[in-house]
Sequence to fold (90 residues):
Amino acid sequence: MTTPSPLVLLVEDDHGVRRPLEKFLQMHDFTVVTAETADDAIDAIHQHRPVAAIAFYDRGTEGRDGGAFPPGTSGTPTWIRWSRSPADIA
Fold:
């Protein structure tokens, strides 16, 4: 019996960045759910219950400020956050 791949949420508003990262994670045996906006990410957390979320965001993330991550909701996964500016995640 095979062990299911860990499910991760990848949050990135730029398709040109999001798609290669998604492929990279899949190559390393992760199942990936993607979200383009902060609001989509919150919906994906509730729907899919990922074990971790990787958020590449900035102040321009559509729907709400990228600094709103991680949302304070039940079932929130472990967050790995990256931004070009420390002010974006402060």
DSSP finds three helices and four strands in the chain.
